[in-house]
Structure formats: C-alpha cells, structure tokens
Amino acid sequence: MSNSLNPVNLTKPMNNILTFDIEEWFHANYDDVKPDRSKGSSFRAHMDTLLQMCSDAGCKATFFTLGCIGEDYPDIVQAIAREGHDVASHGYAHELAYKQTREGFRADVQKSIDILENLTGTKVQGYRAPSWSIVESNHHYLEVLEEMGLIYDASIFPVKTFLYGIPTAPTEIHKPIVNGRELHLYEIPMSVMRAAGRNIGYSGGFYFRFFPEMIIRKAIQSANRQGKSSIVYLHPREIDPKEHQLELPFKERFIHYYNVKGTKAKLEHMLKDFAFTSISEHLSKAYG
C-alpha cells in the first residue's frame, strides 16, 4: 500500500528517470571473491519481473546492459528493446573503468555496443560504468564516449565513498568539461540530497534499500518541486532475497545485500506514485 501522505496527484506530473544495471548476481568487483557461477541464477525471472513492473506502471526505463549478458541472454536484450526501453551499455564484463587503460576502456565499451546493437538493430546512445568507476583520475575517459558517438553518460556519482564518487561534480544534467572543452555529451549524474553538509545518494542501489520509503519519497518530491528529476537505479538481484549471494566481509555484505527483501515492494510503490521515463525520452523532452 502506498504512503497516504504522498498522494498520486501531488507527484505524478514530474517525470523521474528509471534505470537498471543489467548484470548477474556474481558480477561484482571484489579482488578476493571468486563466485561459484555453476550455482546458476534466477536472472531470467528477475528480468521478466522488471519488465512486467514497467509495463504495469506504463513507464519506460533505461537498461544499462553488459555485453556478456547480450551473449548469454540475447532474447532478453531483444525483449527490452521490443518493449520500447533504452538498451544502453554497461561495458562488456563488468570491469572497473579506472582499472582499464584509455584504449582498453574504448575496446570494452565498443565490444558491448557491437553486441547490443547487433541484437536490437538500434543505436546504443548511452553508457554507465560498472560500480560508478568514472572518477576524477579517469574523468577524461568521457572524451572516448563522445568520440564513439554516444549521446549521454550516466557514470558520475557526486559523492565521496571508499569505492567511488566525484564529490565536486555537478548534481544536475550537464555537458561535462574535459581538458577545458565542453563535450558534445550529456552527463546524467546520480541523484543526491544534502545532509550534514555533504551529498548523499537516496534513490538507487544501497541507498534505495537503506533509507526508509518516507525519506526517499520526500527527497524525490523535494527534487521535483525544484523542477529536477530523481534517478532510480537498481540491479536485477536486488528484487530477490532468495538469489545466490557472494561471500563477502561484513561491510561489503551490508552494502551489497542490506534489506534486499524490501526492495521489490518499495520499487512497486514508487512506480505507482511517481512518473518515470527513460534517459533518452527525458533528454528528448527536456533538450530536444
């Protein structure tokens, strides 16, 4: 049941942005963790659920998809495109962008794009780095995406954590400046709110699972009142507490899996009470 303090008619007019990072439960970047992929997965069921949720809500989304997912599940990638959603690149094999050379990064993104475009017959317009791995040291890699003809990037998280983030990055959609030049590329930074003098995420991944629904609602409503869209991002594994899990140290396990059991219902409530669209539709309406 939706929170009665947040009626639909107060929230529906403003379009927010819905995104998913399409990968398996074992796609992660922990050097000492070697997942047993022979366990299988419920990936197909998760994708059926996410697509049905979007259909029920009447919304479009952007699916940042690994190239290797396209190889393993070509029919799922085709289903995403067939239902009118964005199929965007998440790289090929979930490698951290800041651990790749510039040319290695280019090859990785291009490999994923080739796979996805061959499956869907449509141009890939955007990219999101695995684990938000465009940071200050490799921010110039955005030039590569521009050179490849992409329209947008969604890799920047304007926070500072031990894993990722550019805390000084702009918090609104913008064209980034690299080496003194404004790129012909839109940056779609992850949504943040201000708390204790710093930026904090609230509407995706760990933050979506961690914060109570009321806090997320108030943050989205606050952004919408300012004419800003909030961006939600989730992974397929986050809607299923029964999916296989990585063996991780306490801190990493907490970040990776806290409150997975509540994610699906929370997402259903958000889709019911807020309007969402894909990145490409948002850019088309906002910027022409």
From TrEMBL:
Q: What is this protein called?
A: Polysaccharide deacetylase family protein (PEP-CTERM system associated)
Among the Pfam families in the record, one is Polysacc_deac_1
The positions making up the signal sequence are: none
Species for this entry = Paenibacillus qinlingensis
Q: Which PANTHER family match?
A: POLYSACCHARIDE DEACETYLASE FAMILY PROTEIN (AFU_ORTHOLOGUE AFUA_6G05030)
* CDD domains documented for this protein: CE4_PuuE_HpPgdA_like_2 (cd10941)
Annotated NodB homology domain ranges read 24-288
Cite the PROSITE patterns for this sequence: NODB (PS51677)
